[in-house]
Amino acid sequence: MADAIMDRLRQAGHRLHHDRHGRHGRSAFRDQAGMCDVVMMLLPDARAVAAALFGDARFADDGFAGALPPGALVIDLSRIPPSEASANAARLSGMGVLTADAPLAPDFTPGFTSGFAIDLGGSDAACARAEPLLRLFSDGVVRAGGAGDGQRAHLARTADRKNDDPDGLHRLLRLMAFDGPAEPMLSAS
């Protein structure tokens, strides 16, 4: 998924800095993020998102959020709990950084041609900046509301689907088997 998104952003003329699986180390990634006005991340869970943004107990203050310039935008494409998305947005807002939660999901809605459905949550300013970038790789961007509301709308959308796997376990195992690990990505326009 990340490669397809990066291809679309490059085709639109955006310069990308990419650190697949933290190969270049936390400090190099943090330095790259500090040069960007927009950072997109696609990580496997809330713990990985928090560690990328704010660091973890082993490496205090090594997250990339502290390196972002005021007015930068973080677009989180990960699927995390709405409360975590809201908490991240509040913490980043205190640092002068805008946040949009825009969880990616394969799109099964008739009429969307992109293959991704994106429920967009965040402040008006964050969503106004994020939406044109998201539309480069999805026709299925729907404004859901404030911080965390993208995650809430995504949960509601997926709960409404009828399937024979109500717990999502089989679908999760298929995704894990075929999609490989999620990757963070940086975009500087």
Give an account of the 3D structure.
The chain is 39% helix and 21% strand. The protein has 7 helices and 10 strands. It has helices at residues 2-11, 26-34, 46-54, 82-93, 124-134, 149-160, 169-179, and strands at residues 15-17, 38-41, 55-56, 59-60, 73-76, 98-101, 104-106, 116-122, 140-145, 184-188. Helix 5 (124-134) links the parallel strand 8 (116-122) and strand 9 (140-145). The chain is globular.
Question: Any key phrases for this structure?
Answer:
alpha/beta; 10 strands; 21% strand; single chain; 189 residues; two-stranded antiparallel sheet; globular; 8-stranded mixed sheet
Helical residue percent band:
25-40%
The low-confidence parts are 108-113, 174-185
Largest sheet: number of strands, sense, barrel closure: 8 strands, mixed
Order of helices and strands: HEHEHEEEHEEEHEHHE
Q: Bin the strand percentage.
A: 15-25%
Task: Determine Rg (CA atoms, Å).
Answer: 16 Å
Shape: globular
Write down the oligomeric state. single chain
- SS field, number of helical segments: 7
Give me the secondary-structure category: alpha/beta
Mean pLDDT: 78
Could you tell me the number of beta strands? 10
Termini separation: 20 Å
Q: What's the helix and strand layout?
A:
Blueprint: H1 2-11, E1 15-17, H2 26-34, E2 38-41, H3 46-54, E3 55-56, E4 59-60, E5 73-76, H4 82-93, E6 98-101, E7 104-106, E8 116-122, H5 124-134, E9 140-145, H6 149-160, H7 169-179, E10 184-188
Parallel strand pairs: 2-5, 5-6, 8-9
Antiparallel strand pairs: 1-10, 2-10, 3-4, 6-8, 7-8
Question: How would you summarize this macromolecular structure in one to three sentences?
Answer:
The chain has 189 residues and is an alpha/beta fold. The protein is built from seven helices and ten strands.
